[in-house]
Amino acid sequence: MTVADPVTRAAAGAPAPTTPAPRTQASRHRPVRDVVFVEGVRSPFGKARPDGIYAQTRADDLAVKTIRELLRRRPELPVERIDELALAATTQTGDQGLTLGRSVAVLAGLPKSVPGFAIDRMCAGAMTAVTTTAANVAVGAQDVVVAGGVEHMGHHPMGEGADPNPRFVAEKLVDSSALVMGATAENLHDRYPHLTKERADAYGVASQAKYAKALANGDVSPDLVPIATRSTELGWGLATADELPRPGTTLDAIRDLKTPFRPGGRVTAGNASPLTDGATACLLAAGDVADELGLPVRMRLVAFSYAGVDPEIMGFGPVPATERALESAGLTIDDIGLFEINEAFAVQVLAFCDHFGLADDDERINQYGGAIAMGHPLASSGVRLMTQLARQFAQHPEVRYGLTTMCVGLGMGGTVVWENPHHADYSGHTSADTSTATDGEN
Amino acid sequence: MSENTTKTDQTIAPVTTSSDGGDSAPAHGERVTHSLVRDVVLPGGTGTLALITLDNGLDHTKPTTLGPRGLAELRTALEGVERRAADGEIVAVAVTGKPYFLAAGADLTQAAAVATRDDALGLGRAGHAAYTILGDLREKTGVPTFAFVNGLALGGGLEIALSCDYRTVASDAGALALPETGLGLVPGWGGAYLVPRLIGVEKAMDVILTRPAANKPFTAKEAYEIGLVDALFDAPDYLESSIRWAESVLRGEVVVERRELDPQPVWDAVVAATRERLDAVVAGSRPAPYRALDLIAAARTASKADAFVAEDDALADLIMSDEMRASVYAFQLVSKGKRPQGAPDAKLARPVTRVGIVGAGLMAAQIALLFAQRLQVPVVMRDLDAERVDKGLGYVRSTVEKLVRTGRMSRDVAARIVGSVHGTTEIGDLAACDVVIEAVTELLPLKKKVFAELESILSPEAVLLTNTSALSVTEMAADLAHPERVVGMHFFNPVAQMPLVEIIRTTKTDDAALATAFAMTKKLRKTAVLAADRPGFVVNRLLILLMGTIMEAVENGTPVEFADRAVAPLGLPMPPFALLDLVGPAVGLHVLTSLREDLGDRFPVSGGLQRIVDEQVPVVLDAPKGMPRPVDPAVQAVFGDGTAGGEGALDEAGVLDAVLTALTHEIGLMLDEGVVAGPSQIDLCMILGSGWGFHLGGITPYLDRTGYSNKILGRRLLPDGVANVPAA
Questions:
Q1: B501 and B554 belong to one structural domain
Q2: What is the CATH number for B571?
Q3: Which keywords does this Swiss-Prot/TrEMBL entry list (chain A) (predicted)?
């Protein structure tokens, strides 16, 4: 889908309207509105283990604290203007159950008038929360939305409580390895033998190094929400930093790590994302409404797409998703100046780069490092990518377009293309005819 | 559901950890509260805050309390923090608690088990030794201290916070209070000195004396408004907000203004006015409020060190006082009262889906409202004519409207209650009820008639309750086909506020009916005490005896003012004539007469009382709010020959002696008759049913410590040490 992008209109041969179009029956439909990314935050990411920082913190509390900080950062926004709270979690039971979006809205003290819902597309949960609510905004059904995700993998191990239909195996609908994400990464190495373990390890080491540099540069902490953490043994603490990164990781250090998914395999803890607890949230608004409320515009949503691939090579998903999103945006890969790609596994990033002819160490990719270093709390990660891209946009006004993309379990990929409002040729996010059309409808 | 919360639903007293029965000496190991210290890197880059969490390692059903070992751990932790502060490793110190609690105060059970004054002194000093580190840290090292009051903070718990330089509170913190003076103690871990200096001497009187007496803790918002805490933050990210605020204070971005000390004349005037009020209300019945007042009086000019020494002394004296021991006994009795003695297996209780009330008078209407509110079932109120029924329904409606108007009940709950209370003049409309309570006029034949009518329409399983205050439940049930379903359920007026229900079992009452009554009482959030079917049960028998004894003294020539003042040393909620006025002289006379018929002349004839009723003679004068209403001297005219004096006249001490002698004798009889399971059940009744003070322990600890039980009964009522300082 495309959201009111002059580039697309130009590509389709339609002239960009400079004067209001004649009022035909069709023109009286609600316009498709621009959707902008206003603010994004996340909790520090924690180790999903009994000794992790969030072992005694509820998942819904993580989300509540994250959303309250998100809103604290935008005091211009009257909270009653929030039209939706969409929250993703992969496992929606226990402290991630009870229709998260709504229950978290209540727990966070938002006005009771703010509705909410829970959403799931595994790792792309938060991304889907963003694109779904963005679509609502685009069609004019909503003005301001909060989208995010939470995953407490310590409380909810992957696949917890799942009861896969026996037909998956009986009818060979998917390969038996398709439900084990690490195994799908091994499969990707099989399919692209030139994507070697050495390249994957080098990518992993680079991710750690880029993260350490970004942290030192102050590019990570500003987006973090301090979270009070309970420990019956240690007392209350305050999580202010990611727990998982291993700065100073070297190739030598990870070369001989175990390959848990296959004897003699290639996927190790050194080139894959660790099990993680964390929450993310972002604020989206219609472009006009952002201006009306004085909300800062950090990115404009250009296009998004989801695509399916064979579940056993799940990590390939970003490739078709990105191709479709670019096509929808009327852009090519060469137009993209910054990439935020989720590093579920190094090989999955390598497959993406390989397909699009990008170098493994292309400096446009994951400037702050990625999930291999900071962790991947499944349904949360999509918004982390966006929050980081938004910060990079501000640092790189020369970049006009960027994208966030991720692979998704059971063989999917998702991609969102964004435009940088700091760029000289920025398209703008308010449509001149909106007010006229709206007035006409009233 | 946001139901109306009455005053009596709140509890100010710190939670103790006693697990054994009230009739045996308290003895248990300390449930140690640990002081967990953890470094917090301040997000704004200001440095490291040492965050201390008080945690006893148990869940929220086991409140954090402070005993000797816990205090020692806190002190050790603070000494470590102090060294680090001196070394420049930390920029701030903060104290908070495990979820829902900062700390519920001193471990009362431990305090009440102290054997010597030296040990008592040690307990006070142990608190100060730890807390003073917090209080002096900034002066010594420049590092300020913060309390993050995340939950309940009572007594010594709140005093930790008061010892810090700054305080925040969570919007959902359960209660903040210094309840010590209600428990025979003073806020002696700094509270008596710090509170008047922090919030002013007048508000300090409210915190330290008035609120404890009214059993009313502060909400988080109230505590913020009176200045006990400096900032109030929303619960969901309370600790995060507090840490951010603390960092703002450290950076000078937030400045907390402290008030000047009140001028000496103001200080003195408030102290003098309070002393006058204490003399009128407490009347020397217990030492703790006076000791607290003395400490507050000195707090303006005393050095901190001297003030804390004085607090230690006051604590030591009070811990070694019988009043304090009786208070702890009483407090534990009330806490344990939630699990009533003698109740049958709760599983035997029958379901209650519809309740009938016979009568629509004031008592019936109050009961109807309570049932509809708490049992959440339809309630049918029946009276003889539509006018009375409408009046009863009108009471329910106007009462909930008032609760809605004052914000104590939501509109929806009010609508539910009004919608679920129905009125009728047809007894047949009660046919579908599985419980019916009668609250008709106190006439045995009438009540028997009502029960007979009910039996003809109700299922044989339906439970019949009576709210009689002095008639025989056994006789009421005597002619029924199913007397086993009759239970006495005696409410006290005003029903919404009074926490006691006397549950009366006859020899025929079966366990299912009895269990139903207990289950209902629990759902009504009242405390049930099981009593045998003896006249007046517990509370009325003793209260009316007291009143009768006073009347008898006056009839014999004792001046009414003497008689009215005579029991002041007991510190009862009100003087005898004010009580008579509250109960209503007609009701008092009725019960007195009824008890005399059953129990004999110990419940004397009083021609004066008869005339008060017949001629509607006013018995008390008005008094300022909160002050006792004294007897109207003019009432003397209705007694005897209308003049005081003569050889039967008693002085105040003589009246008091007569009252205590009568009470002791009566309690001896009640125990012999098996009215209740033991002396402590009598105490529980007097505390909850008539507001007799914790310092009396109800009544039997007082009779023991003043020697009346030995003198009259030849034995103690409670074992030595249970509710008093044991003989060495």
A1: no
A2: 1.10.1040.50
A3: Acyltransferase, Transferase
Burial A273-302 (b: 16+ CB within 10 A, else e): bbbbbbbbbbbbbbbbbbeebebbbbbbbb
How far B52 CA sits from the closest chain A CA (Å)?
7
Query: B280 and B259: one domain?
Result: yes
Q: Is the peptide bond before B494 cis (omega within 30 degrees of 0)?
A: yes
CB contact under 8 A, B239 and A233: no
Interface with B, mutate which of A61, A69, A215, A238 (most B CBs under 10 A):
A238
Window 51-80 of A: residues touching B by CB (8 A cutoff) are 61, 64-65, 68-69
**Interface contacts (A, B; CB < 8 Å):** 62
Tell me which of B674, B689, B711 is where a domain ends. Answer: B674
Torsion of CA B25, B28, B33, B34, to 10 degrees: 150
CATH 3.40.47.10 fits A32-153+173-417, yes or no: yes
B138 and B226 co-located in one domain: yes
- Cα separation, B669 vs A108, whole angstroms: 60
**Could B43 and A238 be called an inter-chain contact, meaning their C-beta atoms sit closer than 8 Å?**
yes
Helix (H, G, I), strand (E, B) or coil at B336: helix
Q: Are residues B365 and B244 in the same domain?
A: no
Residue B276 is assigned to a structural domain of this protein: yes
Q: Enter the DSSP assignment of B421.
A: E
- SS3 string, B128-186, reads HHHHHHHHHHHHHHCCCEEEEECCEEECHHHHHHHHCCEEEEECCCCCEECCHHHHCCC
- Measured CA to CA, the distance from residue A44 to residue A242 in angstroms comes to 5
Q: Does residue B44 sit in the same domain as residue B147?
A: yes
Q: Cα–Cα distance between A347 and A354 in angstroms, integer?
A: 10
Give how far Cα B149 sits from Cα of A57, A305, B160, Å.
19, 49, 10
Q: Residue ranges of the domains in chain A?
A: 32-153+173-417
Residue type, A315: G
Burial class (CB in 10 A: 0-12, 13-18, 19+), B301: exposed
Cα–Cα distance, B520 to B538 (Å, whole number): 20
Together in a domain, B189 and B259: yes
Instruction: Report the number of distinct structural domains present in chain B.
Output: 3
One domain, residues B34 and B72: yes
Looking only at Cα atoms, what is the longest distance across chain B?
86
Chain A nearest C-alpha distance from B42 (Å): 8
Per-block mean pLDDT, blocks of 10 residues, chain B (728 long)? 37 42 49 96 96 96 94 97 98 98 93 93 96 97 98 98 98 97 97 98 98 95 98 98 98 96 98 95 95 98 98 98 97 93 95 96 96 97 96 97 96 96 96 96 94 96 94 95 97 94 97 98 97 96 97 94 95 95 93 94 95 95 90 92 85 97 98 97 97 97 98 97 92
Domain holding B483: CATH number?
Answer: 3.40.50.720
B74, B102, B168, B239, best to mutate vs chain A, most A CBs in 10 Å: B239
Closest-CA distance of chain A to residue B434, Å: 37
Catalytic residues of B: 159, 180
Across the interface, do A61 and B234 touch by the CB < 8 Å criterion? no
Question: For tokens 């709950």, what's the residue?
Answer: B413
What spatial distance separates the first Cα and last Cα of chain B, rounded to whole Å? 52
Within 261-280 of A, beta carbons closer than 8 Å to B belong to: none
Range of the domain at B463: 346-531
Consecutive H or E run containing B445: helix B444-457
Task: Note the ipTM here.
Answer: 0.89
A19 in contact with chain B, both atoms CB, cutoff 8 A: no
Query: Residue A244 burial (CB < 10 Å; 0-12/13-18/19+)?
Result: buried
**Is B337 within a domain?**
no
Do B289 and B266 lie in a common domain? yes
